[in-house]
Structures are given as structure tokens and as C-alpha cells.
Amino acid sequence: MEIYHGLKEVPADGVGTVVTLGNFDGVHRGHQTVLTAVAALAHERGLRSVAMTFDPHPRTVHRPLEPTFLITTTEQKAALIARTGIDALLVQSYDLEFAAQSAEEFVRRYFVEGLRAQVVVVGEDVRFGRDNEGSLETLRRLGEKYGFDTVTIDEVGRGGRYSSSRIREQIIAGDLAEAADQLGRFHFVSGTVVHGDARGRDLGFPTANLSQDAAGLVPADGVYAGRAIFDGEPESYPAAISVGTNPTFDGSVRRVEAYVLDKEFGEFDVYDRHMTLEFVSRIRGQVTFTGMDELIVQMHEDIADVREVLHT
Predict the structure, then answer these.
(1) Regarding beta strands 48-55 and 117-122, do their DSSP bridges make them parallel or antiparallel, or are they unpaired?
(2) Sign of torsion over alpha carbons 85, 164, 256, 236
(3) Per-residue pLDDT for 204 more than 70?
(4) Are 236 and 271 in contact (CB under 8 A)?
(5) Catalytic residue among 137, 257, 264, 278
(6) How many CB atoms lie within 10 A of CB 145?
(7) Which range is least confidently modeled, 12-16, 169-173, 194-198, 216-220?
(8) Is 257 a catalytic residue?
(9) What is the C-alpha separation between 306 and 312, in angstroms, rounded?
């Protein structure tokens, strides 16, 4: 999949497109339904399929004082969109000037002149342009004016419409099994493995610690069953993943670390390598223990629970 950072990078080769747009945070099942349909329609008509998204997320621009928790970074989102068969992703810089365009200005500049859209695929609740003035009816009218078809796709999910907002809430609450059902995959966080305080090694459970700038929404504090994936390794590894501040040791920094089951610490060098952690299910919440012995007993119980969840 090609990635265009702005219209200036769109090839001037005259190829028409099938276009869809959205924030696509998490690239959940609903997004996947739309994106795969766009790719299939483009293939059928001999056109290029293009998804248009925004960076930063519009909410961070319009509500700068409110915290914005995103399931995926732009880079993670692009990798997930590539799996759907989309030919190209247009990552449009989003700011107040961009947001001030009228609905027609946006359609003419981006869909018609920039992307040479022959078909635009959207959901029925699509909104675009200044103050969200553009609707599905607006798009259909502009399509008739500028010569492109407007296609709507139903992305209703089980128990209601798939929603990035609801999935964020599930992840933040630690309900990773439900989030996985909505996402169509396990939620993941990725980053570089850094040195920790080696306390896990001393306890007999050496862990790989993710750097503080790890990418992806970190779930609620607690212990999770999951899998660890290291760049360059052909397989993933079952793991017990801990999220929290280590309150037993008066910790204050929130950490994400993984104990890889059945691997001795020296078996492979993981420091400074890129690691992705997939969260399968929450085992328990964060607990403060009265001493080391109690903690070690609980860690053994956690490992047993992780094995049961992962069937390993």
C-alpha cells in the first residue's frame, strides 16, 4: 500500500479512484467492512482504491484541552489498513484552516481534483466540511455536479454499531476480550524493549519492559494473558503481561512489561528490540502485596491462569 502525506504526493497518472474517508481509529470490524468493499469495488472497475484519514485526530484540534485516547497511532493504523487490500492511504494534516473549508470546497479539492474520484464510499451518517455542514445528501448532490457516484455501506455490528469510542472505553476498563471481538483482532501495544529495575529477574520472572513512548492505547492496570512478538522472530510467544506502577515496591511510573513463558532470560537478547504485545484477556487487577512471598505466590497463580487462557 502506498502512503500519501498530502495531495502533493498523489501520483499525477490520471488513474481514477474509489475513495472512502474516516478517522479509522483501531481499524475495527466496521472499518474493515468498508475498506474491503472499497478495495473490491476498485478492483472490479479497474480503479485505484484510496482511504483518506487525518493526522492529528480532529478531536485533538477542536478540543485541545480534553485528553484524547487513541487505540492506534497513525503508523499502526496504516499497517492495519494495508491488510484490507486498499491500494493507497492519504494521510491529511488536520488543522483549523483545513477544518474551515466548506463541504463543497473539500469535495472539489480532495475528491474531484486531488484524487480523481469516480466513486466515494461512506456510511449513512457521514459528516464533512466546516462545522460538519456536509451530509450524505450533500455528497450525493455534489457527486451529481462533479461526476462521481456515492455509495453507502452498512457497518452495523453485533449488539449495535461498531464504535471506536466504545472500544476505547473497553480497553481503558481492561475488557480486552470484548475489545478484541469488536476489533476483529487482539489489541496491541508496541515499542522498544528497555532495561527495567531487574526486580522480576530476582523474583524468578524476568520481564521485557516496553519504553515509556510505546505506541497504542495502554489498558487498565492489571495482569493479562497475551502474546509477545519480537521483530525478527518467526513466531509469537505466550506471555503474562503486567500493566501498572508496581505498588508493592512503592512504584510511581506506569509500566508495561511481559514475562515470556518457558523462556530463560538468557535464551534470546531482547533489549533494544521492537516488541509488540497482544492482549488476549485480563487475569486480574493491580494489587498491593504485603511482602515478597505473597507476591511470588500470586505470580505463580497468574502464570497458571495465563496458561489456561492461552491453552499452553
Answers:
(1) unpaired
(2) negative
(3) no
(4) no
(5) 257
(6) 12
(7) 194-198
(8) yes
(9) 8
CA separation for the pair 204, 270 (Å, rounded): 17
pLDDT tens track for 225-244: 999 999 988 899 999 999 99
Please calculate the CA angle 147-150-153 and round it to the nearest 5 degrees.
165
Which of these, 109, 124, 116, lies nearest to 147 by C-alpha position? 116
Total residues found in the chain within this entry = 312
Q: Are 293 and 203 in contact (CB under 8 A)?
A: no
Residue keyed to cell 492489571: 222
What one-letter code names the amino acid at 108? Answer: R
Q: pLDDT category, 199, cuts 50, 70, 90?
A: low
Predicted local distance difference test score (pLDDT) of residue 53: 98
Q: What is the grid cell recorded at 218? A: 495502554
- Assigned C-alpha cell, 204: 524468578
Looking at this protein, which amino acid is placed at residue 302? D
Amino acid, res. 241: I
- 58-72, 93-107, 216-230, 246-260: the lowest-pLDDT one: 246-260
